[in-house]
From TrEMBL:
Family the UniProt entry places it in: Belongs to the thymidine/pyrimidine-nucleoside phosphorylase family. Type 2 subfamily.
Pyrimidine nucleoside phosphorylase C-terminal domain: residues covered: 432-499
Catalysed reactions, semicolon-separated: thymidine + phosphate = 2-deoxy-alpha-D-ribose 1-phosphate + thymine
Top-tier EC class: transferase
PROSITE patterns linked to this entry: THYMID_PHOSPHORYLASE
GO biological process, one term: pyrimidine nucleoside metabolic process
EC number: 2.4.2.4
Gene3D superfamilies the record matches: 1.20.970.50, Nucleoside phosphorylase/phosphoribosyltransferase catalytic domain, Pyrimidine nucleoside phosphorylase-like, C-terminal domain
Name of the protein in its database record: Putative thymidine phosphorylase
């Protein structure tokens, strides 16, 4: 008997629903396939169209929005399987994921081996694990539940299931920031400086996970970032560097899936953080990497002890993978730059590269310092000389010219555009800024619409130690709609301690 011929097929239509990279299919509850196969809401289903197959999560429609003889595909599912017009899909119960035993063992606190992590990452990239199962894995690895050996095994597994680049002999440089600090958009400046001095720096960057902007979001305001591997290679071979979105080049696709799951959970572990960072560096072909680690009470790394632990894990895993890594601990107590949000951070980047007198001095200084430290990593370079080279590249306009050339190679430069609606948040009294809550300041920018609305966010020039007079703007909120502006302003009223002001003595 030909069971394939006996299966009922469903017409494929496009749902037009964004499920954030998770393939989802929609069937009516009276659908013959649903009833005969025993499918229910959140069932994992295997969908086949011709010789293409995709595992997706089922959502059940109970209204008349969807005919019973059709299946609707989310944007992620549609993109993954790319059905032809009038396509017919058949459905099956997928085989249990091969890594199910390893996942269960990790949930119950057992230590996994390298083969276990490889199976888990293979099932992750082939969509054999549901988001619920992946959330269980992320949670089981949180805190200190990954030792050094497991961190290395997870990193190697992430590299193994994606593509890797080989740039040949010689140093290939990279820089990464651990994150947790608003603004701090040093990467485009560092790439421009390093590439202008003749070094290769193929930078793949992330979009925002829980922040108002990722490097890819900010760079996309100025140039295309969704390049494929061939286009990325062309840019680097032509200009020496690039700043592209890592999610489009599949250099560590398992990490992209885990990031999707971590996003609503709003946490990760040191082990997963290290695996995420270093898997992308190995896959991108980098061999000399500088890690910027802001440390502060409202940054991602909150204490010297936490920084010591993370630095040790980074160093141990990097050594096992043959990477030369240096960690630069920086001030994580307050934002860097004026803008928070993609377009506003892009404006800061350009003002530093253009040498504007009003450019944020802290962003310029941090970019020079980090670029100098990265250049000092290169074998044969004189330690301490890198900073001078970086400063000269900026001052001469060499870095700006290289940045514009990189933008041109990636598809063309665009000047940042700014939001239509703005409002100042005023200081309630005279005082000196004693502390700034980075997390709450970032939340204001997100409530204003960043990064979904690239022009949204906020601008603040105050720093710890500055004196503010009552009625002066502490920061200015930017939004594309009045509703988003009001939403952000309402939050500032509910959280008046974003800026900790010490009242002046009377």
């Amino acid at each position: 008997m030909n069971r394939e011929a006996d299966r009922t097929g469903l017409r494929v239509i496009r749902a037009g629903i964004d499920t954030y990279q998770q393939p989802v299919v929609y069937m009516h509850r009276d659908c013959e396939v649903c009833r005969s196969e025993g499918f229910a809401a959140l069932t994992r289903v295997s969908m086949r169209i011709d010789h293409r197959e995709l595992i997706a999560t089922l959502n059940v429609v109970v209204s008349d929005l969807l005919p019973a003889d059709a299946v609707a595909l989310s944007e992620a599912a549609w993109s993954a399987i790319q059905p032809e017009p009038d396509a017919i899909a058949t459905f099956y119960h997928p085989e249990p994921p091969r890594s199910a035993g390893a996942l269960r063992a990790k949930v119950f606190g057992q230590r996994l081996e390298e083969a276990d992590y490889l199976a888990l990452m293979q099932d992750t990239v082939h969509n054999r694990l549901s988001d619920i199962e992946l959330a269980a894995f992320v949670t089981a690895c949180a805190g200190e539940r990954l030792d050094h050996g497991e961190t290395t095994a997870l990193t190697r597994a992430m590299v193994a299931v994606g593509d890797t680049l080989d740039w040949g002999e010689g140093p290939v440089l990279d820089k990464h920031c651990v994150g947790g600090l608003p603004g701090n958009r040093t990467t485009p400046i560092i790439v421009a400086i390093v590439a202008s001095l003749g070094y290769r720096i193929p930078k793949t960057s992330s979009r925002a996970i829980t922040s108002p902007a990722g490097t890819a979001d900010t760079m996309e305001v100025m140039a295309p970032v969704e390049l494929d591997l061939d286009a990325m290679r062309y840019v680097v071979e032509r200009e020496g560097g690039c700043v592209v979105w890592g999610g489009n080049v599949r250099l560590s696709p398992a990490d992209d899936v885990l990031i999707r799951v971590e996003r609503p959970l709003d946490f990760d572990s040191d082990g997963q953080l290290v695996a995420s960072i270093l898997s992308k560096k190995v896959a991108a072909g980098s061999n000399h990497v500088l890690i910027d680690m802001p440390v502060g009470p409202t940054a991602k790394v909150r204490s010297a002890a936490a920084a010591d632990s993370l630095t040790g894990r980074l160093a141990g895993t990097a050594a096992a993978l043959g990477l030369r890594v240096a960690v630069n601990r920086s001030d994580g107590r307050q934002p860097v730059g004026y803008g928070i949000g993609p377009a506003l951070e892009a404006a800061d980047v350009l003002s530093v590269l253009r040498g504007d007198p009003d450019a944020p001095a802290d962003l310029r200084e941090r970019s020079i310092a980090l670029a100098g430290d990265l250049l000092d990593l290169v074998p044969g370079n004189v330690i301490g000389r890198g900073r001078g080279l970086a400063e000269q590249s900026l001052a001469s306009g060499q870095a700006l010219a290289k940045f514009m050339a990189i933008c041109d190679a990636q598809g063309g430069f665009t000047e940042p555009k700014f939001a239509r609606h703005r409002a100042d948040v005023l200081a309630p009294r005279n005082g000196t800024v004693m502390a700034i809550d980075n997390r709450r300041l970032s939340k204001v920018a997100k409530l204003a619409g960043a990064p979904v609305s690239p022009a949204a966010g906020l601008v603040s020039r105050w720093r710890i130690g500055d004196r503010i007079s009552a009625g002066e703007p502490m920061f200015t909120v930017h939004a594309q709609s009045k509703g988003q502006l009001e939403y952000a302003l309402d939050y500032t009223q509910a959280c008046p301690t974003i800026f900790d002001l010490r009242e002046d003595p009377t």
